[in-house]
Amino acid sequence: MTLIAVHLLQNHAPSNLNRDDNGDPKDCLFGGYRRARISSQAIKRSIRWSEIFRTYFAGTPDLLAERTQLLPELVRERIAGLELADEAKAAIIDAAEKFGKADRGGSGGDEAADDAPTTKRGRAKAEPAEVRAPRQKTKQLMFLTHAEIAQLAEDLVTLYRERGGKAFAEIKWDKYREEAGDKYVPHAPDIAMFGRMTTSSPFKDVDAAVQVAHAISTHAVEQEFDYYTAVDDISGESGAGFIGETAFNSATYYKYFSIDWDTLVQNVQGERDIAAATVRALVHAALFAIPSGKQNSFAAHNLPDLALVEVRQRKVAVSYANAFLRPVRASAQQSLVEASAAALQRYVPQINTMYGLTAERAFLSTAPFELDSAHECATLDNLLAWLPLSA
Questions:
Q1: What whole-number distance in Å separates Cα of residue 26 and Cα of residue 33?
Q2: Whole-structure pTM value
Q3: Interior CA angle at 112 toward 110 and 118, to 5°?
Q4: How far is it, in rounded angstroms, from Cα 225 to Cα 351?
Q5: CB 346 within 8 A of CB 323
Q6: What is the DSSP string of 75-107?
Q7: For 168-205, what is each residue's pLDDT tens digit?
Q8: Taking the CB of residue 176, how many other CB atoms lie within 10 A of it?
Q9: H or E element: which one contains 286?
Q10: For the chain, percent helix, then strand, then coil, each to nearest 5?
Q11: Strand partners, 257
Q12: Which residues lie below 8 Å from residue 328, measured CB to CB, with a gap of 6+?
């Protein structure tokens, strides 16, 4: 087993799940037509923070990681109870602040845009100065496990005690990264899946084992606007106390995930049982996790109507987005979901036969859907049980 692919068709009621810098639903051009879009970083964050995904690791919470700039503050917490002079603690915390240079791209900041609350124009909201406590931060947002942070704190304390304050202050931390080598190696499933890049820090870079496509609508889409008002309950004044508008759309999305099994096993240090649990957790969570944008206003909690899982022995990743290069259309006989399923049913054998590609397949579907030799599952439990994962 080399590659596992997940293909989903998911129809959302009117919603604004993932906003651009104007607060409007993200979109794109595909096949010459405007499509609704949900960014891959929004999808990934909704998966790794979903209760379903985290439940798979409830017994081993230290396997999961967090994305943060607050490494110095986390080190501060871990050394707070140690018998160290205040100046020693301050020096150690300052050292932790020097790890990680500012980074505009890569997996280190991949989900940053969807992590932070934003203004209408997309800028991160700032807390009022009077309530913002001074906290030391690294320049880069880093994806770290609690075990790695604890190990670093312990190593910095040991280094300070061995060398003393003056020599510790003169340490070149870029050289420390080189000396650390593969010392700080994560076993975290979420890092193993989505990777990380930690420039100028001792934490090991990890190539992502999972690729996630931007979800796009299978059909052309038009933006719509909701004009709304709010009434002041106690003013006694007539008319609206507030007037606003919000953009939204409704679309059937094609979602695609590619999982490199061999890289995933390597990323969790060869622990195949963890890798197998990670794949099941990812597939399970991908069917339920939905980005949270404006859900209080729209409640677009729609599950996928079709889920197709493929397992290939050859490392050839294949997205079926081109099944929708010509936008599908609803009719009196077919819904958008049914038309999308029909387009996918035609395209899958065409592209695989053309290139001589084979795969084991299983699927769930509420819409009419058939593929030769594909196993139709009646329930999600059947689909998860079908996954050929050997621990």
A1: 14
A2: 0.86
A3: 145
A4: 39
A5: yes
A6: HHHHHTTSS--HHHHHHHHHHHHTSS---SSSG
A7: 988 888 777 777 767 777 789 999 999 988 776 778 88
A8: 18
A9: helix 272-288
A10: 35, 20, 40
A11: 6, 212
A12: 218, 219, 252, 336, 339, 340, 342, 343
